[in-house]
Amino acid sequence: MKYFPAYRKSYLLIITIISLCFLLIQCIDRGRRKNETSEIENTKFNEFAGSESCRKCHAQVYNDFILTGHFSTSTPASAQSILGSFEEGKNTFHYRKGLYVSMEKTDSGFYQVEYVDSIRKIARKFDITVGSGERGQTYLSWQGNLLTLLPVSYLTSTNSWANNPGQHNQIFFDAPVSATCLQCHTSYAEVIPFRLVNAPEEFNPKKIIYGISCERCHGPAAQHVAYQTENPNDKSGKFIIKPSTFSRTQSLDMCAVCHGGRIKNLKPPFSFQSGNRLSEYYQFDTLGTNNLIDVHGNQYGLLKKSKCFQTSQLTCITCHSPHKNEEGNLRLFSQKCMTCHNEQHGTFCKINPITNSISANCIDCHMPEQPSKSIVLQLENNKIPTAQLLRTHDIAIYPAATKEFLKNEKKKESGD
């Protein structure tokens, strides 16, 4: 009989334990990844009914909603959805001498094409438009299951093509698009699981719901639609999320998921649904109370700083109707301000005299447009980048903005 020294037995025991631990870790990791996949699949593509299915019972709401910026914040690229010009003389963006991108239309679609010294180098297809066009658009291209950002965007205020933010004088065709981006410009995008560590996320091109649709706030509606079709006289609204019943925190969380600043996913993409506690799904940027909050993408962070928010039960939908296009309607928003700020409450505007235009516009003085730090585009032949102007949601007194507003009002009155 062969005997092993004691130290060899200990060595074999240690090796065995290490091997078992390794196998256990692998099983746990596979289980964790399987669970993550299952959680993604908790909201399956086939659980969505599509906004069009809401039309039969909610025709007026549907007809109003499809005119909003939310609804059109992403769409398949087409002649109708791409706002920039493909007309010769208006379809190029020059980075420097000999280097430019040409926007070209062919029988197979629309393309951004890189030229170096007039030699065609790279051509990538416009597949998705991102942005309603109120201020601009950005464009995405499929490379297999990977979505990449095309280098040239469109700026509405100048009706021209522009270089993407942060890409001055350089052409990038391969910047990957993450689920974090799609979470705020689509209602659902199926993420393909089991990617390599640090590899870009991939998506199923056939399982994307474009725009911020009815189901982004009301939840996947296939079960609701099926039930209501079978039970048209039941008006209780089963199997659907009802934001009108939300607490203040739930209502704010519903909007803050996209208007609350930079976030990091704590759970799989698209697993958050309206009514959930946002902090359980996302870790937010800690720059919540300082001057670094940007006017783009963190309206909630700015709103929280305001006295209006802190001394009332104000939520986003106090002022914004989620179902109607109210963009730029300063009179309407001002009327909402004056439900609290009025002579009866002793909180009305102190400017004297109060003209009709002043009483119809609280916004330009108390929520002026400010340049975004994150949305800065490079225009052709312009060395100074152009920042997008967006309204601050830190409702306050802005002396410089008020002075400028009154000066413009005097010009209007004098006819200058």
TrEMBL record:
> Does the keyword field hold Transcription regulation?
no
Answer whether the UniProt record assigns the keyword Transcription regulation to this protein: no
What keywords sit in the KW lines? Signal
| Domain called Cytochrome c-552/4: residue spans | 177-219
Quote the Gene3D superfamilies the UniProt record gives.
Answer: Flavocytochrome C3, Chain A (1.10.1130.10)
Q: What InterPro entries does its record include?
A: Cyt_c-552/4 (IPR023155), Multihaem_cyt_sf (IPR036280), Multiheme_Cytochr_ET (IPR051829)
Give the matching Pfam families: Cytochrome_C554
What's the name of the protein?
A: Cytochrome c-552/4 domain-containing protein
